[in-house]
Structures are given as structure tokens and as C-alpha cells.
Amino acid sequence: MGFRQDWDALAVRIDGLAQAGLFVVQTAAAVGSDYYGVLNSVVLPNATETFALLARFHETHQLALPPAAARALKQFIELQGKFFRDGKASGFPALQGMIALLQSIRAEVTHHLTDLEFAQHRRVERAFEHLKRSLIVDEQLAARWTAAFDKHETHCEKLGAVHLLAHGLWAFKASEAGAATDLLLGSPLETDDHVDAVAEALVLTEWKRVTDAKDLSAHAAKARSQAAKYAAGILGGVELRSFRYLVFVSERDLVMPKDIADGAVVYRHINIPVTAKPPSAS
Questions:
Q1: Angle at 262 between CA 258 and CA 215, to 5 degrees
Q2: Any idea what the Cα angle at residue 176 is, between residues 166 and 234, rounded to 5°?
Q3: Any idea which of 16-25, 114-123, 213-222, 257-266 has the lowest mean pLDDT?
Q4: What's the predicted TM-score (pTM) here?
Q5: How does residue 132 score in pLDDT terms, banded at 50, 70 and 90?
Q6: Collapsing DSSP states into helix, strand and coil, what is residue 180?
Q7: How close are the terminal C-alpha atoms of the chain, in Å?
Q8: Whole-angstrom distance, CA of residue 237 vs CA of residue 217
């Protein structure tokens, strides 16, 4: 299953555990004690196992999670691990602590998983993956991209802008002055009712034409420098602010540099090979 399905199952488990704990507390208050010892024999071990499942969830899905969700889980596991694992916590004080902690991390991670920016980022990733796979199977499309690659990188970015728009993404680049420039028209871009009506997100991209793999590092540094000039936030609420996409169009597949995090912004490196081979052939 994907991380969303796995998290939904964990969230249901935590809620059920909280309800069971509340029932034990209420009945114990009514009869004077936890007569059958359900608290220490069942509920608390269940809470400890739930913590272990949270750690396993983080280990399995940390690369796919929104960064804020992954950080919250990592911090929770590091700070609260001893409390859940040492086996010394027992009775109603342990129930109070464990349930409160589990409910707290459940609320925080669920909040981060509703992050609209991360959903937009996934849309961008899907759009680029769609383009790369289309270039493998669609000979006419590959021919258009090859012709654009042979001419100039601006021809590639225009084709790219049209492809992204088909996925609900309006791509732009940064001007020398840090303003937003429309990839297709080359004119200053300002949000208006037309852009908002057709685009799910505005996406900052910087396109580079790489004819020699040895030049990739220099192209990457230049692309990051140009993308960094943009003054984030000037296009309003539909702008994807946490990710900037550095796109390198090449004849063959290239090994991309690692993505770079600069404060709250991640610079994502994407390769578009115009004569791509399927993975098995590569």
C-alpha cells in the first residue's frame, strides 16, 4: 500500500486505542479497579506495538512523505522511544502518557499529509514522468523534442510549458531582475483570473540544454543561480513555493545531481532525455 493508506490504518488504530483506554478508565472508576488487569496486559502493550508500527511506517515511507511529516515522525520516535520501549511504564499514568503522545503525533502527521503544496509537487513529478515515458513510446513527440533540442533550449522550455499545462501546471522562469517570466510568451507573468481559472499551480522551472555530460555540473550551478533570483510569493496563492525544478534536456539519459535544500526551498533536478531508452535497455 501507499503511505496514505498505511497512515489511515495507523490513525484508525490510534483512535481505537484511545477509545479502549477511555473505556477502561470509565469502568475502573465505576467498579473501583481494573479487575481483570486489562490495562497492563492488553491496552499498554497495544500502545507499545502501535509505537513500533509508527517507527516502521517512518522507515518505509520517509522518502515519499511530505518533509514536515517525515521530520515530525523522526523527532517523535527519537524523543519518545525510551518511554514506549523500556517496559517500566504501567498503570493509569502510563495510559495517560501513551495515549496523549500517540494522539498528538496522529494529529500532527495527519495535518502535514493534507499539505496542498506537497500534493502539487506530486502533480509536477507525475507530469515530468509522463513526458519521459511518452518520449520512449511516441516517435512523433520524440521527433519534435529532438528538433527543439537541436535548435535552442528555449524551444524545449516552450514544449515543456505546454506539456505541464496539460497537467494543470503553469510553468514560469525567473528573469534577471527576479520577476516571473512566462515560458511560452517570454513576457512578465502576473496572476489574473485567466491563470487562476486554468492552473492548479504555478511552478518555477529553469531549463537547460545539455549537449555534453561533462558540462552538467556547470549547467546545474547556473540553473540554481538563475532560479534563486526569483522573489518567492509574488504570484499569489496558487504558486508552488517549496520546490523549484531545474530541468536538463539531453540527448541521452544523464545522472542527476542530488536535490538541494536551501532554507524552505528544494531545488529539484529533472532530466528529460529526448532519445530515451526504457530502463531495461539503459
A1: 40
A2: 60
A3: 114-123
A4: 0.66
A5: very high
A6: strand
A7: 28
A8: 33
Alpha-carbon distance values, 260 to 87, 119, 234, 240 (Å): 41, 20, 22, 16
**Residue-wise over 54-78: b if at least 16 C-beta within 10 A, else e?**
bbebbeebeeebbbbbbebbeebbe
Written as nine digits, the cell of 163 is 506539456
Measured CA distances, 177 to 153, 226, 231, 247 (Å) = 20, 10, 9, 21
Residue type, 162: V
- Eight-state DSSP code of residue 259: P
Neighbours of 235 (CB within 10 A): 21
Q: Residue ranges of the alpha helices (H) in the chain?
A: 3-31, 38, 44-61, 67-85, 91-113, 116-137, 139-151, 153-166, 193-198, 216-228
